[in-house]
Amino acid sequence: MNAQFFEELSNKIKEIYSSLPAEGIEHNVHALLQGAFTKLELVTREEFDIQAEVLRKTRAQLADLEKQLADIEIKLGQPS
């Protein structure tokens, strides 16, 4: 990840911290971090797990199709 990005993020947090009353800091830092994470295109653990499962199923289907193709090639006398 880009060191400059984190430096800018740190500076923005310091700026917010110094310019707001204590009760507004948490809300604003949370919003700032949420925007930073969106910029980094991070996904939630749930989204990651869903995509990992889709990939697992796709790999299993690909393996099955490769086996079927190899069987067909053997039947037709065409080695792979």
TrEMBL record:
Pfam family, any one: BMFP
Compartment annotation: Cytoplasm
Pathways involved: Cofactor biosynthesis; ubiquinone biosynthesis
InterPro entries in UniProt: UbiK
UniProt entry keywords in alphabetical sequence: Cytoplasm, Ubiquinone biosynthesis
Top-rank taxon, per record: Bacteria
Main location: cytoplasm
Function per UniProt: Required for efficient ubiquinone (coenzyme Q) biosynthesis. UbiK is probably an accessory factor of Ubi enzymes and facilitates ubiquinone biosynthesis by acting as an assembly factor, a targeting factor, or both.
Stored PANTHER family: UBIQUINONE BIOSYNTHESIS ACCESSORY FACTOR UBIK
Family: Belongs to the UbiK family.
HAMAP family linked to this entry: UbiK
Protein name: Ubiquinone biosynthesis accessory factor UbiK
Organism: Methylobacillus methanolivorans
Gene name linked to the record: ubiK
